Amino acid sequence: MGVITTRMLKRDASGVDAAVALLSRGDLVAFPTETVYGLGGDARNGHAVAGIFAAKGRPSFNPLIVHVPALAAARAIGRLDGPALRLAQRFWPGPLTLVVPLAEGHGLSPLVTAGLGSVAIRVPAHPLAQNLLGAFGGALAAPSANPSGRISPTTPAHVLAGLEGKIAAVLDGGPCAVGLESTIIGGTPLALLRPGGLAGEEIEAGAGPRAQPGSAITAPGQLASHYAPAAAVRLNANCAQAGEVLLGFGPMQSDLNLSASGDLVEAAANLFGHLHRLDAKGRPIAVAPIPDCGLGRAINDRLRRAAAPR
Ligand code: TXA
Ligand code: MG
Fold first, then answer.
1. Helix residue ranges, H only, the chain
2. What is the pLDDT of residues 41-85, one digit of tens each?
């Protein structure tokens, strides 16, 4: 893949139109969602989908999440009924991905699902993502817009830092509000496949599956070492050791604090941006303990992967 000029597209009708023109040709456009930036390509176009794997340097063809504007469009590609349908009705649009059986005549490139009989579907709530999907008029395959194994991007600058020269454009929607990838649920019976931006407690209240801490079930492609900064990461640190920078939580001395007031929603939104900034200092990163409830579960999942041996 040669080096191309990556354009920055404005968050207005002209930017959305330009993004649609590029996507329709099979080019790749990073776009904002409320969770993280996605690297979008036409989910029906095998060439575009292959380009996503190439740009990210993904080691294997893991299945990708397919983004659609609403439940009706989701039902054209996946079979949604029973408890999965109830979760969709309750939490879409929002940071929830559902893995369901492929629908007859779905039209997706088999690369999107890695040849599986199921598909991961998400309806993002971000207004710019909604505009883009509506104007494009088809499904967009979109993993997080970062090189494989690195920290997920929550700003256009993060996307450029990892993928400039490899993708056609970035649609600039500013920073992402949630800051953690979507929660993934699927299987029969429904199970939590990846903790994420929709807290387990909320899903249980909506009659979804119980979040089982340490459950052996994971989405394929959930490698232990993932979301990795270049620097070493040490967890559950109450203070920095010599040479380390400290990522704090709650009232404490630190180099950067995820949330000085101990708010897990604020901490989730800050997580990847703060890791990017501390990583740029080129020193090992110590991270304060984070409570393992609410969005804290997804934060701790990402931190364990960041700290895993690689
Ligand atoms: O918030 C998000 O979910 C972001 C934004 C851009 O929407 N997307 C994202 O996509 O995180 P990605 O590709 O990085 O994560 C996709 C996850 C992978 O762990 C993959 O294995 C799982 O979804 N997945 C996709 N299709 C699946 C399937 N048919 N069965 C099980 N897991 C699947
Ligand atoms: Mg990712």
1. 13-24, 46-56, 71-75, 82-91, 127-136, 156-163, 200-205, 264-279, 296-307
2. 999 998 899 899 889 987 667 899 999 999 999 999 999 999 999
Tokens at 284, concatenated: 């090992």
User: pLDDT digit string (tens) for 259-300?
Assistant: 999 999 889 888 988 998 999 999 999 999 999 998 899 899
Nearest ligand 1 atom, CA 39: 6
Cα dihedral sign, 111-272-181-142: negative
Identity of the amino acid at 118:
S
Which domains, ranges and CATH numbers included, belong to the chain? 7-206 (3.90.870.10), 233-307 (3.40.50.11030)
Secondary structure class of 99 (helix, strand, coil): strand
Any residues with Cβ below 6 Å from ligand 1, and which?
33, 35-36, 38, 62-65, 97, 99, 113, 116, 118-120, 122, 142-144, 181-182, 184, 186, 193-194, 219-222
Order of strands across the sheet that contains 245-248: 233-234, 285-287, 245-248, 256-257
